[in-house]
Amino acid sequence: MSGLIVDSPEAKQLFTRASGLDGTGGDERLKRIMQRITTDLCRTVEEFDVTPTEFWTAVGYLTRLGQANEAGLLVAGAGVEHFLDLLVDEKERQAGLAGGTPRTIEGPLWLADAPLSKGEARLDQDPEQGTVLFMEGQVCDADGTPIPGAIVDVWHANTKGGYSHFDPSQSPYNLRRRIETDDQGRYRFRSILPAGYGCPPDGPTQELLNHLGRHGQRPAHVHFFVEAPGHRKLTTQINIAGDKFLHDDFAFATRDGLIPEVVRHDDPAEITQRGLNEPFVTIKFDFAMNREAENLPEAVVVREHAKAA
Ligand code: BEZ
Ligand code: FE
């Protein structure tokens, strides 16, 4: 016996009954998970001598977190979304899957049904003073065979770090597009270099981060879902090299292999050729997709998303 109340027969019976394990109805797996979570929570309360006032402060915090629709932010900031990636990576390794573009977190800011076009797209529809970005690449199999007809769903923040839909100052689907790869598996788009995202400064996620002595900033990045029949859906991001927060992301999403070179072009002839007046940047990034197979963890993640108006 540990001597802790949480390990007493009375507490154990309480957690068993509270999770429905003494009855027959409901979902057996959920009951067991609920029992574990309740027991671990109460163990933490007891071992850290959490006072009732501290406990109810935490309950109030979680209520405000939900009301502010920031649960997805906190999960990323607490490192749990990245941990889920580590788990899937390991399961894939154990199943013998190697190669392929590294995955990284989706984050809470994707929106379904972005405009779809073939081969290329322009993402920036709202006028903004930003550095023009041309990005292109190829979607291939893990063995290098191009995949025509793959869907590259791309979304990123504007030059203030805001995402359309969540930032009402932007027009619907600004900086969000889906591009179907051409017959050589190629995609390309024009956009503007994003700024890094920062948690809402007065929101509950930043409030907790402040208590942990942490910032709530992400380096500038561009998100991708890449999907092709017979292949595992890829959820990833590229980071913009040189960003102050490149290796200090509050959401822990920066990974080796996801930091392509950002090439700056200031040759006047090149600028004119692109129909521009200012220097611009280019990024080349190819995606390597793994084939779907049995006994692999799910690659299509079902989670709640914001609904477009
Ligand atoms: C983002 O992708 O911008 C993001 C990811 C996790 C939490 C908040 C934002
Ligand atoms: Fe993002």
Spatial gap, N to C terminus: 56 Å
Mean pLDDT: 97
Q: What is the helical fraction, as a range of percent?
A: 25-40%
What is the SS-derived class?
A: alpha/beta
Percent of residues in β-strands: 15-25%
Q: How many strands in all?
A: 11
Number of helices: 7
Instruction: Please give the radius of gyration in angstroms.
Output: 23 Å
- Runs in which pLDDT lies below 50 for 5 or more consecutive residues are none
In one word, what is the shape? Answer: globular
Q: List ligands, each type once.
A: benzoic acid, fe (iii) ion
Q: Main β-sheet, in a few words? A: 6 strands, mixed
Could you state the order of secondary-structure elements as H and E? HHHHHEEEEEEHEEEHEE
List descriptors.
5-stranded mixed beta sheet; 7 helices; globular; alpha/beta; 6-stranded mixed beta sheet
Written description of the protein model:
- It contains seven helices and eleven strands.
- With 309 residues, the chain is an alpha/beta fold.
- The strands form two sheets. Strands 2, 3, 6, 9, 10 and 11 form a six-stranded mixed β-sheet that branches. It has a five-stranded mixed β-sheet with strand order 1-5-4-7-8, with no helix packed on it.
- The radius of gyration is 23 Å and the shape is globular.
- The structure holds benzoic acid (BEZ) and fe (iii) ion.
- Benzoic acid binds next to helix 4.
